[in-house]
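ESCALATION

Customer reports they have been waiting on this structure for their group meeting. Please prioritize. Original submission:
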Amino acid sequence: MNRTADKPTSVQKVRIDKWLWAARFFKTRSLAKSAIEGGKVHCNGERCKSSRELEVGALLKIRQGWDEKSVVVKVLSDQRKGAPEAALLYEETAESIATREAAAAQRKVLNASLQPESGRPTKQDRRRINRFRQDLHASQDQQKN
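Update from on-call: job pushed to the front of the queue and completed.
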């Protein structure tokens, strides 16, 4: 048995939207095209069109949700394969990995601090809320008079 699935197939020319789809950054080519047209993908520091032909060694900045990845194109491919084969098409830069991890840690700390300790107010909390409402209504009544 001769298995060619171990290495991604290399081609001479490939459109950037097709490569992003093959490298599994986007589920469909139309999503990749929309991201490119929306300015979420930059090639070598410049905005590009989805029809731009990609070259090996190009630096891509791809924004997906909260994260921005900087990747260097290692192999050109126009076929979508499994995730392990797709990961061979590019290499993420060390700065990009460090930046993403720092941002993720910061978001995690922020989300943990915003989470309430319990879902429902305690009896003491309800008393404080009622007292606050009474004081608020009293001050509004005084302003009207």
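Sent to customer with the following note: The longest helix spans residues 123-144.
Escalation resolved.
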